Amino acid sequence: MGRQPHQFRLAAMLTLALLLLGCSRKGPEWNNEGIESIQLGQRGTVYSLAFSPDGKYLAVSSKVRDKGFVVWDVESQTEVFSAEGRIKAIAFSPDGKILAVEGVEKAAGLKRPTIFSPDGETIELVDPFTLWDTTAWTEKMRPAITDIEAELLAFHPKEDLLFVAGKQLLLWDLKAGKARYRIEPHKFWIRGFALSPDGRTLVTGADTGKVWEAVTGKELWSFGAPPSTDSVSCAAFLPDGGTFATGGIDGKVRLWDLKAKKEKAVFSGELYRCGALAVSGDGKLIVVAGGSLADDPGLVEFWEVSTGKRLAKLNVPNVIHVALSPDGKWLATGTSDGLKKGGPNEPGVVELWKMAEVLGKKSK
Question: pTM for the full model?
Answer without folding.
Answer: 0.85
